[in-house]
Amino acid sequence: MGTVEPQVAHSDAVQEVTDGFHLVIDALKLNGIDTIFGLPGIPITDFTRMAQAAGLRVISFRHEQNAGNAAAIAGFMTQKPGICLTVSELAVAKPLAKAAFRVLHAEDIGVGIARAIRAAVSGRPGGVYLDLPAKLFAQTMDAEAGKKSLIKVVDPAPKQIPGADAVKRAVDLLKGAKKPLIVLGKGAAYAQADAEIHSLIEKTGIPYLPMSMAKGLLPDTHEQCASAARSYVLPEADVVMLIGARLNWLLSHGKGKTWGGKDHKAWGGQKFIQIDISPQEMDSNVRIDAPVVGDIGSCVSALLAGIGSTWAKPSTEWLNAIAERKYKNIAKMAETLAKNPTPMNFHSALNVVRDIVKANPDAILVNEGANALDFTRSIVDMYKPRKRLDVGTWGVMGIGMGFSVAAAVVSGEPVIAIEGDSAFGFSGMEVETVCRYNLPVCVVIFNNNGVYRGTDVNPTGGADVAPTVFVKGARYDKLMEAFGGVGVHATTPAELRKAMEEAIRSRRPTLINAVIDETAGTESGRITSLNPASGKKK
Ligand code: TPW
């Protein structure tokens, strides 16, 4: 228990007191929190000093947004709340947070933090805002009473067991399927029910698709992985079981042409089983025939029990049809990856990244950009759970360096960040943070001179460059050198390979400026079709 200067009480006896600062620190420590991501500034500067003095790891950033991203991904990786310390405003945070509380009295700090922890990690996990007004920190109270006011949260994310009828309904539907498919989402990765999921996939023999952050839950090279035949399996499947994956825009809301529907909104005829912690997720876009509500671990275990030991695997006709497409696509991709064009393009560069990740399956891959994101997701196989951290559902650029710092701090493993040059710019200043804490982060910037590409021209012929174009031939590697890290300028796959290998081996902060053909890639990566066309005739 932290204490402040003893004060003399009326009775002349020495009374131990504590204050708001120490109560917050003690409440966090009591709940197993060992790291705070933040940015000091009045009124929390002293707090950061005291937290560090009390043995917490305080990782301070150059922009709070990056500290927020770091805390978010730390939460994803550990199931413990990631803590972001910032000077902010309750009214701004409230509409964006899962919950928001304000603590006004020192004696309520314990309950405030307990409530915030529960709100963050129970049910569908989410960001919680705890507002601690400046004057709270200086409030004092009796040390013993303060200690008693703290709460060590018991079972912060209680199991949610699915109903037996729901499980039976799902098993029956799956049993009747001719062309079943499983989709794994990042909820499945978060749940840390890796063994159960692995066993469900292999026992049923059902082909599966991992969503971006579920890659590696089973190795992407697994026989049943249907990623390379995605555009075949989605419209063809008759029963689809979603495990911690939502039917949002990333899955075309479960309908439309992607799913074999006649037009962009038509249902494709699939039946859906959905396993999710949130009952509200069901029927949010199409009919869910068998909702299974509960935590992923409990739901998958219940399904495993329901499936029993006499499960009939899917027909060889279905499996062969998938395999045929899959291996054809893989062979085609292998041809493209083997090319060595000058200048380097996304494929020849990613061929290197793919090998490096394969050789270092414990390394964590952070990824953002448009083409840099889409190509990396499809080309670089992941081998272990929760090793791929990316922009997630909303495609938010700017997660790169915050995620990288947190991933390195939380896991101690090397981090490889594959960044579009535009994406990197959103959080690029944090390379100083990477260097300051001497983190084993290797940033690879796919530098093609602009947002998406670097080829646009100003149609007026004026002096301003086009809105998507950056300084040509920029040397991002020098940015890293400015802070004592290793900067490498790589123009060939061989140079990229050598630099990445060295970065992983040395664990030194490294930034590789990988020069990519500025004409390579497409606008918006895979979502070019969402670009609205001008309605105005010339
Ligand atoms: C917070 C819009 C989507 S992708 C992208 C932007 C600005 C960058 C694409 O260029 P980059 O990648 O990174 O060079 P590449 O490989 O194609 O060359 N602001 C936020 N989020 C998003 N998604 C955008 C803007 C956007």
Written overview of the protein:
This protein is 37% helix and 16% strand. It is α/β, with parallel strands linked by helices and 538 residues long. α2 links the parallel β4 and β5. It is globular and about 85 Å long. Bound molecules: ligand TPW. Ligand TPW is lined by residues 369-372, 395-398, 420-423, 446, 448, 451-452, 521, 525.
Topology:
Blueprint: E1 7-8, E2 14-15, E3 17-19, H1 20-30, E4 35-38, H2 45-53, E5 57-60, H3 64-78, E6 83-85, H4 90-93, E7 99-102, H5 109-121, E8 128-131, H6 134-138, E9 140-142, H7 143-149, H8 164-175, E10 180-184, H9 186-190, H10 194-204, E11 208-210, H11 230-236, E12 239-243, E13 271-276, E14 290-293, H12 296-307, H13 316-338, H14 346-359, E15 364-368, H15 371-379, E16 388-390, H16 400-411, E17 415-420, H17 421-425, H18 431-436, E18 441-447, H19 476-481, E19 486-490, H20 493-506, E20 510-515
Bound molecules: ligand TPW.
Task: Kindly summarize this structure in a few lines.
By secondary structure, the protein is α/β, with parallel strands linked by helices. It is built from 20 helices and 20 strands.
* Number of distinct beta strands: 20
Oligomer: single chain
Q: Report Rg.
A: 26 Å
Bulk shape? globular
Report the structural category.
alpha/beta
Bound molecules: ligand TPW
- Unreliable segments of 5+ consecutive residues: none
Strand content: 15-25%
Question: Taking all residues together, what is the mean pLDDT?
Answer: 95
The profile of the biggest β sheet is: 6 strands, parallel
Number of helices: 20
Work out the helicity level: 25-40%
Distance between the termini: 73 Å
Strands ordered across the widest β-sheet: 16-15-17-18-20-19
